[in-house]
Structures are given as C-alpha cells and as structure tokens.
C-alpha cells in the first residue's frame, strides 16, 4: 500500500519540531558556573580578589552554550556590536611599515580627562578594532574611565615595544594598562617577559592565550578544530591578498627574502601560511622553530608586572593543556582565573545576556579599576613609584611618526 506523502513526512516534521523544542529548552535552562583561581596568596593578589568579585562569583549560562564549540560559534555569529566610532592614527614604524591605532571618537560631553588611564588592546589573529569583542571592550573601558587604544597589528609577531612607547609619549601623565586576546595575548605576554621591569605597562590582562604554540598547532589537527584552522587561514588569505604582489616582488629579487607567495595565497591552514610568510618575515629557520620560540609560556617566569590571565577550560583553540600552570603559580605577579565554559572569545555569560558583551569585559574593567585604587594605597604606592622612577622620560621612539589620521565607523 502506498503511504501518503504527508503521512511519510509527519515523523520527520515531528523530529524537527522536537529538536527545535529541545534547543529552545536548552537556551532557557541555565547552568550556574563558578570560576576557579590559581596564584600565590600575596598581599596584592588577595587585595585584587577582594576588590574584584566578578573574578570568583558564579555566572549563569544557557545549557546549550556550555559546549566550547557551540559558544565559540554562537559568539562569533550572534554577538551584538556597539558600532564604535573610531579615530584612527596611522603610525609609521622604523622598518618602513605602518600600524593603525584606534581610539573612540567621543562627543565633548563624554571626553575623558587627559590623564585618564590608557588601555592598549591587542586583538587576536586576523582580529581588529571592528570585531565585536574588541568594540565591547572599548566601550566598557570608557565607562570605567579608561581610554582604550586598539593596536591593529600587521602580523602575529609584531612587537608592541614601539607602540607602547608612542602611547606613553602621547599620554605622559596616564597609567598604562594592556590587554590581549588569543594571539594578541601571546604577543603581549612575550613583550612583558622580554621587557620585564623596563616596561611602562603598570598591569595587564591576557585572555584565551594559546601559550604553547606547538601544542596549539597540533590541537588544530583534531576533529572539528580543523574548521577553525581552515577559517582562520581563509581570513589570512583575504588580508594577505591585498599585499600579494609585494611578496612576489620580494621573493623574485636576488636580494629578497625567500617568501613563498603562491603557497600563502592558497594556504588551507595557519601552519601553511606561517611557513610561507610569517616565519620568514621574522627570521625563523622553520615554522616549528617559530612556534617553539614564540610561545609565551616561556615568558611567564620573566613577567614583572601584575598579570591577570583568564582562560576557559573548554577553549577549542587555546586548550587547557597549553596553560603553564606551574610557571604561573611560581610567579607572584601572575593570577590565573579559569572558567568552566567560555569557548574561544566567547564567554557569553555576561550581564548583557548571551548576545551582549562578553563576561570578561566587566571583569577586566573591574580589575583595572582595582589596580588604580590599590596603587593609591601606601602599601603598594612606594613600589609603584620606584618602578615609575626607573622609566626614562617619555619620548617618541626613533623612526616612529604619525603618517595619517582618519575617522571611521565600525560595522
């Protein structure tokens, strides 16, 4: 007997409806989760935790988002953007290149005082001031009385040394803070380890830092993580394609560096692109040597300023296994906050709901506000003043100047 089409479709329709109902239920059912903290019980760390309840308080998240992959993708696709209006400064660098520094363009009624603290933000690989998580951080900083400067880096190994010096010269009366995400966190942490007590940065925050690049590279080859690898490589391709002709000319020159432009333009993985361009640009003999030598896990023992590290246990790109727990515990300047969920650049348990600002934004603003408050207390002021006294007078780095200025609206 022939079954009517509508009757045959009914089970499929019921299954679809049931799946949709389950998804809705999973978004309505909320799990309460609590971060864990690791670090030495120093007077500074104890005071920070006392002033920053967000770092240890439970947060609530829809059950559906308690999977690292789901939260990562959900945040990337559905997080709302505040559409920040930026003033862009194009900064000429000593090697002849150019980087872009973005600050929020504000009406007179919202202008911050000239000596307001300044927060240098370092986005992740292929990220920049237009990304939703960066825009939200800029807004949260301003609401906390902190001026954010987004460092749009040219590549995964750009050192912030000249940018930090330039920003300090521009705001000589301000406390300098720094925060980075993902590869930006890796770059920032390496900078802090290299500069040690020479840095003018007073305190910093690293979020979803991959730390151990060889381990993180191997992690990209596992299951669904290949999708992230491919997607990030596509983003690198798009950025690189605008400059492909320059690398072709360099590779063709008898005195040029041996770039592999035809490999780079078709790279299907970050590793392929790094082997073709990045490791050559920064003088590494192989991509494995580049990853091993550029891992910020090596820098943690040398960090000499307060560093808050925020990681998610279920981060599919910056895996928990890459976190240098022992080195963090051994350095009294470091404090690790580990959230049970968050994915990569997700943290959808913020006060603005699942599509609002990341949970980390309020925590980071709270942290830097606490740092400023503690530095005014006699217990910590003397050490801060001694550190400031060791700094040379603010000055523009050699070979650095402003080559242009524009204003643009972030989408």
Oligomer type: single chain
CATH superfamily of the largest domain: Alpha/Beta hydrolase fold, catalytic domain
User: What would you report as the Rg, rounded to the nearest angstrom?
Assistant: 23 Å
Strand content: 15-25%
Mean pLDDT: 91
Question: How many strands?
Answer: 12
Poorly predicted ranges (pLDDT <50, ≥5 residues)?
17-26
Task: Summarize the structure in short.
The protein contains 15 helices and 12 strands.
Question: Can you walk through the features of this model?
Answer:
- The chain has 411 residues and is an alpha/beta fold.
- The chain has 2 domains: 295 residues, Rossmann fold; 75 residues, no CATH class.
- Helix content is 41%, strand content 17%.
- The strands form 2 sheets. The chain has a 10-stranded mixed beta sheet with strand order 2-11-10-9-8-6-7-5-4-12, sandwiched between helices.
- α4 runs parallel beside α14.
- The chain is globular and about 60 Å long.
